Amino acid sequence: MIHPDIQGVTLIGVPTDVGAGSIGARMGPSALRVAGIAQAIRNFGLDVRDSGDLHGPDNPWEPAVDGFRHLPEVVRWNELLHDAVFAELDSGRLPIVLGGDHCLGIGSISAVARHCRAAGRKLRVLWLDAHADFNTAALTPTGNVHGMPVACLCGHGPEALTHIGGHVPALSPADIRQIGIRSVDEGEKRFVHEAGIEVFDMRYIDEMGMRHTMEQALLDLDEHTHLHVSLDVDFLDPDIAPGVGTTVRGGPNYREAQLCMEMIADTGRLASLDVVELNPALDVRNQTAQLAVDLIESLFGKSTLMRR
User: Fold this and answer.
1) Is 101 part of any known ligand binding site?
2) CATH topology of domain 8-299
3) Residue 224 assigned ligand-binding role
4) Tens-level pLDDT at each residue, the chain (308 residues)
5) Any idea which residues carry the catalytic annotation?
6) Is 82 annotated as a binding residue?
7) Helices 287-299 and 254-267 sit at what angle, rounded to 10 degrees?
8) Domains in the chain: boundaries
């Protein structure tokens, strides 16, 4: 279920892989459309508008400069996305960002945070990902900005990215819950602990189960909370979701992922969503996009039985 104040849903395609280490995520929005994302959401009786794709700079595919790859291009895409997401939120709609790589979380979530500050709402961000994405230029082994969005949102990064949205930091680490994490660089681990981000990694999920994990991640939500879900498709185990550039074995299986989405839906607080890192060039017959749409249906309230 979605936040009761939402007037409709807007799809925003962001066809870029400037922040990634492999080419192909630029085709993600098309794959999600082919998999039927718009109709799947319309089936819940919601007004769904597809705003088409944003148009930003091409991927120059160059090496890192001063610890960042493609920084000017990453900045421009995120500025465009920030403005698009903020406009939809301002008109009472739920934006769904169709990525594109996860560097786009900077533009998307900085807009959500700006909207929440203006509306006097609390913000909870669920970061569903195999990676913590808390790297900096000093820590990153690659310079790929899709490994840095959480750090940038928390104020650690180049000014051109941390200042998108006009407030630094855009987020407090206390606003974030990371779920499904299982691949973190050594220096990044220390930085995540220093920042105090609440992380439910795969060992926690193995030991405690997805139900308990989600109960903890969703604790203290109330009617004044805006819930944002940032779904990196590599959150899922690659056995069921091969179409990503950064696969890490040992992620949530189909039922665990469904339970995660259903429990988010049960809160009735979902108000914005990113779906990122889908790489159709690495997929098998669009199965990862189809699975993503299946999970989004559960986020919007699909369940096995009608619940009273």
Assistant:
1) no
2) Arginase; Chain A (3.40.800)
3) no
4) 888 889 999 999 999 999 999 999 999 999 999 999 999 999 999 999 999 999 999 999 999 999 999 999 999 999 999 999 999 999 999 999 999 999 999 999 999 999 999 999 999 999 999 999 999 999 999 999 999 999 999 999 999 999 999 999 999 999 999 999 999 999 999 999 999 999 999 999 999 999 999 999 999 999 999 999 999 999 999 999 999 999 999 999 999 999 999 999 999 999 999 999 999 999 999 999 999 999 999 999 997 665 56
5) 102, 129, 131, 133, 146, 232, 234, 277
6) no
7) 30
8) 8-299
